[in-house]
Structures are given as structure tokens and as C-alpha cells.
Give the backbone structure.
Amino acid sequence: MRINQLLLSGATACAIFFGGTVSADEVTIASWGGSYQEAQSKALFKPVEKALGITIKEESYKGIGQVRTKVAAGSVPWDIIDTGSGGGARGCAEEILIPLDYSMIDTSNFVADTQLSCCVGTIVFATVMAWNTDTYGDNGPQSWADFWDAEKFPGTRAIRGKMHGMLEPALMADGVPADEVYSVLDSEEGINRALDKIRELKPHVAVWWSSGAQHAQLMKDGEVDLSTGWNGRFDVAIADGGNLKYTYSQGLQDYDCFGIPKGAPNPDLAMSVIAEMSKAEYQADIPQYITYGPTNTLAYETGKIDETLAASLPSHPDNASQLLPISQEWYAKWEKMASEMYTDMMTE
Amino acid sequence: MADALNARELRQDEWREKLAMFGLSLPALVLVFAIIVVPVGWLFWLSLFNDEGVLSLSNYTRMFDSKSYTRIFITTFKVSILTTVFCVLISYPFSYFLSQLPKRWAAIGLFTVLLPFWTSLLVRTYAWLVVLQRKGLVNEWGIELGLWDQPLKLAHNLNGTLVGMVHIMLPFMVLPLYASMRAINADYVKAASNLGANPTRAFWLVFFPLSLPGLLAGMVVVFVLCLGFFVTPAVLGGGKVIMVSMKIETLIDLFFNFGTASALGVVLMILTLAVLFLAHRLLRLDKILGERGA
């Protein structure tokens, strides 16, 4: 008995000492931090932890680039990562995310085009235009042409410091209908046309934002009068007492997804956790904390999401009809080149 | 002159001492080799391969083809030079003042410089954002007091970046300056006055040249540290101040492009060495910093 105890404590000590050995019922999830991860934690991570009787550790990270570095270095600390659809698509193509087992994960009731072979959608969000209600009252811009119009809407703007989700609005502001945006963008001339439109706006750009937390803060503090950004972050800023509003008009529809990095410590359990988190009962709780729409449409039938809340979500039919879904094919083809051209334009 | 009788022994001694010295510094040399020379060499090696993994100079030629790279380098040097200049303008009078105070008072003064040093760089940078932004403290008070009508553009541009960086870099300038000023014997200045120099002349002829080693050491440290800055320009620059380190981060984070990122690092290193070499030749740093025995 004594000896057994001694051995046991010795083994435990070893396990602690040679840290990195993960216990079998523990997964680590990396997400984007801020109000978004807080919502995920309350709606998904904590309840799933309880339901499966496991431990879910949380970290925040900076996106697929970091996963790539970790995979290349051969030491992956995360079992599950939350990434944008673009990051997910890149992760699949570069095989740094492993294929998901869709016999375990039920996506039969998912919003269309919200899953990839190795990344399954968790929320639908929209890139929208927001305005300061102290400056413009309720009559903010209703189209990208308005957002670009410095006479109609005098004031400072914040736009993204990366071309992602910026070229589409620029073309729409230049008069291209939403359904033709990606065909126009499918050439160097098209990209240049969008960049020229942003050059026009440059004198009014006070900040080139680099994160969701930043554009929410900029609007909440009244640092800028108009900003592009993600609808959920703006809603949190509004809930925090910020004087701003946004519209889904001409917005871009996108989604975030869960994937499992190659070399994750606990991939099997990660798969079960993802399967559980994709269920409607958990997804239905996300909108209580942040206004991102569930990817699983059954969530709307759980009775947890009331009418007014549902109507405010990007995946609600009335809103979704105003949005242009992001084209992963376009990003796969042009991302690198367009990014270089965008930085050229920014530094001019 | 005839050799001393013990010349052989002396030579042996000297040889033995050299060996012992080399042995003592060996661990440090190995460390420097392992953590500086090898990685830098590896970076250089990586920079010679293009996206397809083929040996080529495309990572370097791209810097000339794409205008943004040149602009990013110019911005990096401009910000670093301006930060260094402002640090000198603030630190020199301050250090001079401290060096003239009794030691106890000077210690309190130094403490005020070092205090921010113990606060996280990120916290200090965000604190500046709160102070400088459109509805920040400075603008609110300035408008309230009627000093200006429209909010001044203090943050999210070069101004904000410079304020933040100068604040962070000040201790690196003040400490070497103060140390070298303290070491100046006050009698030299008195002697100059005794010989008829007025205070201004005594300062420029005697005190200033003697304080140069500290000043130049501080300038070099501040300038070189600035070249690699990331957080402060990223937070306070509002996307308008893009420095090399930020471009490197994008290249790695978004595109996993170690080749181009390494090339940027190599070019920055070469330019930095070139600047230091020029400063060395033009300012005769070796003379000022004290020549080593022949």
C-alpha cells in the first residue's frame, strides 16, 4: 500500500515534471480573444466541458499563421483552433489542418457553404459599415457609395489595414452590383479599380484598423465617425454604451470555423468536442452573448433565440439576403498579389 | 635592445595567459555563435530561396520592384532618426541638470526616469493612446481651455508613434548620458573658467566633448533599438506608420513567407551596419569612445 502510493506519487511527479504530456481527457482550444471568445466560452466551451466530463483549456491566438509556424516547428499546443473561413481554406490547402470526420459531426442542417473538408463553421458574421450616432444620428450611410461620400457624410473613417473584405466594398462604392463584384475583381485591372477607389477615400481615413477589438474601440470612443468592421464586435460596443449603429446593407457574409491542427496532442477527443459544439443546443446560446448567427439552423428552433434577437443576426433571412458571401476561390487565387498591391497603396 | 634574460618565460607566460583568456571566453563565444551567428546565417540562407524553394534572388529584387518595400525602409529609418533626435534634445538637458544635483536628489530624478521602465511596454503604449486620441485627455483639455478648436491629430499617425517611442527610449539615453556626465571632473570646468572662459564657452569646450562618449553610446543604442520596433508603431501609428518589423510579421503570419521576411531582415541588418560604420568613420567614434591600447 505504502509502496503503491509512493510509486503513484512518483509517477504523478514525473508527469508534472515532464510537462507537455497531456491527460487523455483534456483539450486546448485557441480562439480570437475579446468579447468573441468570452461568448464562445460561455455558450460552447464551458457547457461542452460539463456535458463530456472533460477539461477544456482556452488560449487566444492570432490566426492560421501561428498554427502554420507551430506545425512547422513540430510542437502544436492546440487541439482545436477557431479561424476565419479564409484561414480555414488556407489551412486545408496547406494540410496543416487535418480532415474532419463528418460522420461524427452532423452538418445536415447547416447554413449553405459554411463548412470545409477540415474546418466546420461555428458562426456566421458580416463585415458591415458602422456610424457614430452623435455625428449622424440615425441617418447613417446605407450603401458603400454613402460610406465613400465625404460630402454627404463628412467625418473620419477607419478601414481595414489588410485587403481582406475591403476590395469588395470599394467596387460596390464604384457602382459594381454585388453579384458582379468577384467577376470584376478576377483580374489585375479589377483589383486596381478597387484600389483606386480606396485611394480616393484615403484623405478621410484616420485609422487603418488591424483587429476586431480595435475597430470596436475606435467606434466606442468616438475616435472615428465611420468604420468598416464585424457586426458582432459593433454590437458589443453598443452594449458597452457606445453611440453607434450599423447596417447589413451591402455587407459581406463570412463565417468562422473550428479545425484541428496537424500534430494536435489529442485529436480524437478534439473531434468529439467539435461534434458536440456543432449541435444546435449549444450554438443557440452564442447569440445571447454576441450577435453572430449560428451555422446550425436548428438553433433557431430551440426556442432559445427570440424573434427580435433572431432578426438582428446576420444569418436571419432578411439580413442574409442583403449580404454578399465571401468567395474563398477568389481569395485562394488573388490573396497574395492583392495584399502586396494593397500595402503599396497604403504606404503611398 | 638586447632581449631580457627571461624573454622566453615572458613569451610563454603571455601565450598561457592568452590561452586562459580564450578558454574563459569560450562559453560566451559558443553562445554567441549558437544564438546569433547560426540563426542569422540561416535567415540569410532562407532569403536566397523563392516561393517554390528554388535558389534565386527574387526575394531581393522584389524589394526594388514593389514600391512599398522602399517606403517601409524609409519610414523605419525616418522614425528611428527622429526618435533619436528627440531623445537627445530631451535627455541632454535633463541629464546635465541631474548631474549637477547632489547625488541623493539625482537618484530621485533617475527614479522618475526608470519608473515607467517597470511598466509593460504595451500598457504604456495604450496609455498614450488614451491620452492622445481624438477624444483623449490632451484634446479634451486643450479644447476646454480654448487653446485650439478642432481636435489635434496626435494619435494614429507619426506624431503619436514618436511620442510613444521617445517615451520608451528615454531611459536608454538618460542612463549612459548621466553616467558619463557624473564621471566628468568638475575641476576641469572650473579650470576653464579660471582661464577666462565664460560659462557657455567652458561648457562647449570642456564639458560637452567629455560627455560625448555617453551621448554617442545612448544614440547608437536608441537608434538600433528603434529600427526593430513593432508594438508602438502598430498601436499608435494607426496603420500609417509601417515599419520593417511589421511587414515581416505580415509576411510570416499571413503568407508563411520566410524567404521574403528573411530578406527584409538581412537588408535591415546590412543597412544598420552601414549606418553604424558611417557614423564610426565620420564621427571617429573610436577616438571619442576611447582608443584601446595598442
User: Anything to note?
Assistant: Chain A is about 45% helix and 20% strand. Chain A has two domains: 24-124+255-320, 127-251+324-347. The first helix of chain A runs from residue 2 to 17.
